[in-house]
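Morning F.,

Quick status update on the modeling queue. The single chain you submitted on Monday has been processed. Sequence for confirmation:
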Amino acid sequence: MAWSFHKRIKIIPGVHLNLSKSGISTSIGVKGASMTFGKSGTYLNTSLPLLNINNRYKLSDSNTIPDIYDRDAPLPLFGNIFSADVQEITSQNMAGVKEAILLARQQRKELRSDLRKIQAALGTSKMKLILSYLFLYGLINKTISKDLKLNIEAQKEAIKQTTDLIDHCYVKLDVEFDPEIKEKYDQLVKAFGNLTTSHKIWDVTSAHFQDRVAARSSASTIVSKRGVRFSFKSLAEIRSDFEALYFENANGADLYFYPSFIVMYANQEDFAIIGLDEINVQQSYVRFTETGAVPRDSKVIDRTWAKVNKNGTPDKRFKGNYQIPIAKYGQIKLRTITGLNEEYEVSHYEFTEAFGQTFRAYQTIIKYR
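Structure tokens below.
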């Protein structure tokens, strides 16, 4: 009897986003797939609630707190700057997207296990065929060698089909835009592309007060920061016609911006999905007392001294006191009420400003339409 392989039905998930004037809708669906990729599954429709243009959450008739979307609300400025554990950050209405990614990953794991079993079975069948010839019983009884050859061909085909299933086992992200929203998104992508070309991008990991008088310095804040990169880079678990806007994170999970959500990705097990409507992006500039080399695309807007008096004049008690440039850097702060807390500085201020403006314009049109 020829060898046969009974394949478990696999469910390959997909996510469909519709960004229209009536709001953002998300369809999280599955298509069942056996070896022939043929069977249909079910669809779960969810929606991202549109935010009311109201600057405050109402707690009771007499108590309110500032909404995080109120861009005038103060944010924490000092101390270590890092986000909460990614397991705590996922938006409630993005849980379905996360489940789709986890499901695709589980499918790949099971399929790889199946693949190893088929490969082992193929190795056994080939060995049996060789032994049948060595001990002549395969030459005497032609049926034995014939069945073994049929097994080998069936196993090779099963390996091919299982490998193909693994290659297609990912979350397919389809996005449909209204023309007006697509225009805003294209502007955002262009602005981000310019931002990625900045000579220097830093992740600010901490900021602390400094006693300017005691330190004889013009800087009131000491920051720790590490060079990182921005680029277009998508996750292996998600395939889409739209590449993610990638923010490297020096002290935590990296950020991948998709058209309506952000994936905060530490590793295959630890990641969060955050609705784009929940994030508070603040863009501004900083006057940075640069003790190192000023990046070639930054502007020097002032100068100070290595040792300075309270009134800004050089402290003549220090020999060899020298001037230090003050550069204008762009600043981007990312916050959510669930625990996202990241801060970046960028050498090219104009590109930072353009990104901030286009991001807010895109976020506004998908939040309030």
